[in-house]
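To: structure subgroup
Subject: Chain for Friday's discussion

All,

I'm putting the inputs and outputs inline so they're searchable in the archive.
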Amino acid sequence: MSGLILMLSDVSDGLLITSACYLICMGLFTKLNLAGEKETPRQTKFAAEFLEGWHAFCANKLLRMMTVFVVFLNCTYTVINTTAIYFAKDDLRLSSSLLAVVLSASGAGGLAGSLLLSKLRQAWGLGKVFGASILLNALAYFLLFLTDGLVMFTAALFLCGFAATLYSVSVYAFRQEQTPAPLMGRITGITGTCFRIGMPIAVYASGWVIAWWGASVIFMACAVWNLVALAVYVRTRLWKVQ
């Protein structure tokens, strides 16, 4: 859908469509009825609530460990998403309309990943699914490094989308399962902020790397980065999480 929106001749139309989709989602969200026990409101200060969430986060070693991996892996994920577009325009010389169509391959890969994720978790466990996502991301980035045409670029984007779904769902499912319900909002805020710490630095640095050595260096560096992370990951307790 994002690719189709990018095909519009007027960028503002895409923004309007996106805004409309958000409004529709908000309307659907208001119709949800969640069954559960209602908590008695507590009169506490923001600082006290934050510290309570922070202490809970620090006490959960597995969640802290997962957060560290996500901080480093998110850097490569963000850089690749940005670099791939510049690579398609500058190196592959794709038109904007063709690029929009090709980008939909990532969405198709994400759909395939969502259909297989439940079965993969039942067979392997959550920890190994997350590890598989790291490996698949590394392979996708290496395929981008080897890309010299449209077909290989499309295949790489499909694999990126497939791996991204396994990666994202594994991370958020793990966080959900590791967090007590009363602390969900605070833990989500803390981990969500941590997840994005390295992104601005990585994107800024990647711009200079592309200017000096080209996009291929970014693809190879991100592939190696993920393989190193995987080599460390399989030696942790997270690998055996079910």
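Points worth raising on Friday:
The chain has one domain: 46-240.
The chain has a mean pLDDT of 88.

D.
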